[in-house]
Amino acid sequence: MVVNPPCRIMFRLPPLRSIQVFDACARHRCFSLAAQELAITQGAVSKQIKLLESFYAEPLFLRQGAQVALTAKGHWLASEVLPIFDKLYALGQFGTSKDKIRIASYPSFSTRYLLYQVDQFNRLYPDIDVEIVLSVSHPELCDEVADLFITVEPGSDGYHSQLLFEEQLIAVASAKILPQQRPLTVAELNRYTLLVASDYMGSDWQRWFAHNGVTPSKYQQTRTFNHVLLTTEAAERNYGIALSCHMSVSQDLLDGRLIDVGLPSCPSGLSYYLCCKSRRRYEPSIKLFADWFSRVVANQLRRHPHNATTPQQRGVELTNL
After folding, report:
1. Secondary-structure percent of the chain, ordered helix, strand, coil, rounded to 5
2. What is the DSSP-derived secondary structure letter of residue 275?
3. Among 26, 69, 170, 255, which is most buried by a count of CB atoms within 10 Å?
4. Torsions phi, psi of 100, nearest 5?
5. Average pLDDT over residues 298-310
6. Cα atoms found within 13 Å of the Cα of residue 240, Cβ hemisphere only
7. C-alpha to C-alpha distances, 286 to 123, 187, 260, nearest whole angstrom
8. Neighbour count for residue 54 (Cβ, 10 Å)
9. Could you tell me the fold of the domain covering 12-93?
10. pLDDT in tens, 103-156
């Protein structure tokens, strides 16, 4: 006996075109931007939203000039609709996904860490071409720029963001200037040149001294650069001791190009996220790289957490110089 599935005509479905229009309005919080995305007039957007509000018998948006805000009912509907459209978008990409993905990130992270990891990914998945896009400032979240973004600014509406790690600054140097195998003490710092990265957030070494409650020696030698990429490169060239992102230099430490001098780390206050457009997160190549890269970072953090940020946690005795 064959049992036919229930006919959906028996159930009261919301107007599907209105749901599509609502999704765009909920993501943009703006009727005019939703109209641009859907290639329809703003009047047509308003008509579809009114139709949907009539269906639910209550407002979905609060009008605030050019912008709109979701009501409680609107928030509920948006939370239900977004994953549905994500899956529908993925179905539309099935069998037609691109074999090339672009990843935008900062120069210091890209050249010292991401470049190596992309090479490892290419060895595993040679059919997917990964292009690294350097961004001097925060990468602009835009399809025209890249498909995936590694940034310290989590994505806005319409973007999916996954926390990768919270940045810790660790003191690194070339093994040639620190031949001894024991950790360096703070009292010995004034024997070496500190390679200072100074930016809009101030000096990294100033933050390190303040975080660890240490007053630097008035005889301390320093050299100042305007980017951590330069201080890390200078450390590798035996110029002194630099503070670098623990994740960015992890491969340099493994390969012996740099060593961790043994001082306590210092949180930079920045968190790194992997972002992509919500509608594209299920594209096969994007999902494959995002899942793989997230696992690589998580495994590396488990092996080398660098989460000891106080002198007591790392067994280092700090005294004022």
Report:
1. 40, 25, 35
2. E
3. 170
4. -135, 135
5. 66
6. 21
7. 17, 48, 34
8. 11
9. Arc Repressor Mutant, subunit A (1.10.10)
10. 999 998 999 899 999 999 999 999 899 999 998 778 888 888 899 999 998 867
Q: Can you tell me the distance from the alpha carbon of 147 to that of 219, in angstroms, rounded to the nearest whole number?
A: 49
- Give the pairing of strands 159-173 and 259-260: antiparallel
**What are the residues facing 318 on neighbouring strands?**
none
Q: Give the H/E segment covering residue 284.
A: helix 284-303
Domain extents in the chain: 12-93, 100-166+271-303, 167-269+305-314
Whether 97 shows a pLDDT value over 60: the answer reads no
Tokens at 316, concatenated: 């280092």
pLDDT of residue 310: 36
Q: Which residue has the higher pLDDT, 304 or 60?
A: 60
Look at the alpha carbons of 294, 274, 203, 257 in this order and tell me if their dihedral is positive or negative.
positive
Contacts of residue 110, defined as CB under 8 A and 6 or more positions apart, other chains included, come to 132, 134
Q: In angstroms, rounded to a whole number, what is the distance separating the alpha carbons of residues 147 and 288? A: 13
DSSP per-residue codes, 44-86: HHHHHHHHHHHHHTS-SEEEETTEEEE-HHHHHHHHHHHHHHH
pTM of structure: 0.66
| DSSP designation for 158 | T
β-strand partners of 273:
151, 163
CATH class for the domain made up of 100-166+271-303: alpha beta
Q: What's the pLDDT at 293?
A: 96
Which tokens hold the place of 114?
């991401």
Pairing verdict, β 67-70 and 266-277: unpaired
190-249: per-residue pLDDT in tens? 889 999 998 766 789 999 999 999 888 888 999 999 888 999 999 999 999 999 999 999
Asked if the domains at 100-166+271-303 and 167-269+305-314 fall in one CATH topology, the answer is yes
Q: Taking residues 171-176, what's their average pLDDT? A: 92
Overall CATH class of domain 167-269+305-314:
alpha beta
pLDDT averaged over every residue in the chain: 84
